[in-house]
């Protein structure tokens, strides 16, 4: 099954399904608002992402069904001798396909895309309470070398 | 002295001084290449940052002297109900002004700028070996809630 996964850029038609997946998560459940019609804030964010050549919202599909999503941001930095980095965020797979390797394919796709775009580094932060996710990323080759520090703003 | 600090967008004329500061650091010393003329990779990265409305390279100045630098990236995300985030990277202060609060002013400036741009979150990652930096950011209100996971690419 996993080898039938097709990756493509998300369209606004995918947005309800994407937000449904973002909300179907232990942390997402408390932060997202999956309701139909979809809150306009999600459509505004989609359009901002879609308009930015340095942001890519990617969905994984099995046939007609969207079963995974991730956002990849490409950023030029002066550090590391002027290197581009890829940052992955909002990674979710559908609860209907857990354990089928879709998450692994998603992240491997992001790694390949980052290499295509000339990035020297791919990075992400994951909540320290997501112990399974941390082990998952470590198996794929990420190392938890940094503290991911955050501050909520007004 | 600290209350005379002026913040402004970096120009290409500041680049030599910025790279000198990036290299004058325990980790930066092994990764940067401060030589004159400056390696072209830094100029290319500067132009990419300067051309991107979602990236701001900011310098702190005392009179004519550039004494601090940071890059702030603004990213639209679907997560957190379509919220924008600010990510701070490449923060350095001149070794000539350590202990004068320039770093605090720099980060407080980034926080204000993030609020102006409507961000709900400001974030950064810092190497776990930078224990002083971690304590510095915690004092300013950041919390190390996440693992910062990285993978080097070819």
TrEMBL record, chains A, B:
Keywords linked to the UniProt accession: Acyltransferase, Transferase
Reported EC number(s) for this entry are 2.3.-.-
Keyword 4Fe-4S (UniProt): no
What InterPro entries does the entry give? Acyl_CoA_acyltransferase, GNAT_dom
Task: Indicate yes or no for the key word Transferase.
Answer: yes
Q: Which GO molecular function terms does the record list?
A: acyltransferase activity
Q: Please tell me which top-level EC class this enzyme sits in.
A: transferase
Q: Per the database record, which ranges form the N-acetyltransferase domain?
A: 5-154
The protein's name is GNAT family N-acetyltransferase
């Amino acid at each position: 099954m996993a080898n039938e996964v097709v990756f493509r850029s998300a369209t606004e038609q995918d947005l309800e399904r994407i937000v449904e997946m973002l909300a179907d998560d232990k942390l997402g459940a408390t932060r997202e608002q999956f309701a139909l019609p979809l809150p306009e804030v999600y459509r505004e964010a989609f359009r901002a992402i879609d308009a930015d050549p340095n942001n890519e919202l990617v969905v994984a599909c099995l046939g007609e069904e969207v079963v995974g999503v991730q956002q990849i941001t490409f950023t030029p930095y002066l550090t590391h001798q002027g290197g581009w980095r890829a940052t992955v965020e909002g990674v979710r797979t559908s609860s209907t396909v857990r354990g089928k390797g879709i998450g692994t394919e998603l992240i491997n796709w992001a790694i390949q895309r980052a290499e295509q775009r000339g990035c020297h580094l791919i990075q992400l932060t994951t909540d320290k309470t997501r112990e399974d996710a941390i082990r998952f990323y470590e198996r794929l080759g990420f190392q938890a070398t940094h503290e991911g520090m955050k501050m909520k703003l007004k």
